[in-house]
Amino acid sequence: MTNVCAKKDPSFGKVTLQNQSLGKGDKDTPAPIITSVFLLGAIMLGGLVGLLSPLAGENLSRGIDATLMVMVMVFLLFFESRLGSVFSAFQNIRFLALAWSANFLIIPAIGFGIASFFFSGQPLLFGGLMISFLALCTDWFLGFTLLAKGDTELGATLIPINIITQLSLFPFWLWWLANGSGFADFSLLPRMLLQWFIVPLLAAQAIRFAVEQLLPEDRCAPILSVVRRCVPFVLAALIFQILATHIREINQQLDSAILVATAVYVFFITTVAAGETLSRLGRLEYPQRALLTMTMAARNAPRMIALTAIAIPNQPLVLAVIVTGMLVEIPLLTTLNQLLLKFKPEK
């Protein structure tokens, strides 16, 4: 589909640095710290409501599906704008192959080893941790890459490829985690894909087409940008509903939160070390080294929270693990950014 908003904008299909910045007023992607603050507030409020009023939590549970649908639509509405940079990626095939191998071959191996060490024999905790580890970040890492003075233009070419690969592999990962453990009902996957991806995708495309045809281009792009800024609010609403509904079950496993946080820390340190090793072996210059390190270290909790709530609707402990991982990750990424800048070679 031809994008009317993009016809007169030569930067469309490439993520502009100003719009992807984390420190200069991000116009497209919500800053990770904003999402983290909203999540923390949603966790505290949802848990409080669920503990004080189980009836209120039960009533809130009836709106989870509606909030999930809004979340999915928000993701899909702006998905197409990333596809234009797929073609640019092939101009940097060597780095692309290195980053893809790191994210989809090396990272899963590292994650499996760490999750097995901490939660072997505990399928829900193991599964939640693995989903968190497998969910590479497809947006925020550009903001941290920019702050670390990395190659954000090259990083923009990774976004659509990472999204497509991640969504394509998610059913496989789910099947693997569910196999023999009762972690999820894999037989529901075809209906899940139809209800929660194919139908919303068609609806999102129809809405996007209508917006592009009915509005002038100077009003079209800002609307899609506003939609994207809604992610922290919708995600916080989803977490609030889930916590208010399931806080009592989660509370029984509260002692596992420390182990989850420790596992995330170990994963983070290991992936950063792996990124540095690959950068040296690949003889990458600093901008590409910072980009590779960030794309390997950053995870995408928001998308995985939505997908996991859809695929595994009755396992709140799995979602709690993913949220815990996200809250631990934000300060670690901020620290990594400072370390990269400290050891950045002088020109």
Task: Characterize this entry briefly.
With 347 residues, the chain is mostly helical. Helix content is 75%, strand content 0%. Helix 6 packs parallel to helix 14 (286-297) and helix 8 packs antiparallel against helix 14 (286-297).
What's the helix and strand layout?
Blueprint: H1 17-20, H2 32-52, H3 54-61, H4 64-77, H5 86-89, H6 93-119, H7 123-134, H8 140-147, H9 152-178, H10 189-214, H11 217-229, H12 231-251, H13 256-281, H14 286-297, H15 301-311, H16 316-342
Helix pairs in contact: 2-3, 2-12, 2-16, 3-12, 4-10, 4-12, 4-15, 6-7, 6-9, 6-13, 6-14, 7-9, 7-16, 8-14, 13-14, 13-16, 15-16
What can you see in these coordinates?
With about 350 residues, this protein is mainly alpha-helical. Helix content is about 75%, strand content about 0%. The protein has 16 helices and no strands. It has helices at about 15-20, 30-50, 55-60, 65-75, 85-90, 95-120, 125-135, 140-145, 150-180, 190-215, 215-230, 230-250, 255-280, 285-295, 300-310, 315-340. The longest helix is centred in the N-terminal third of the chain and has 27 residues, at about 95-120. The protein is globular and about 60 Å long. The N and C termini lie far apart (about 45 Å).
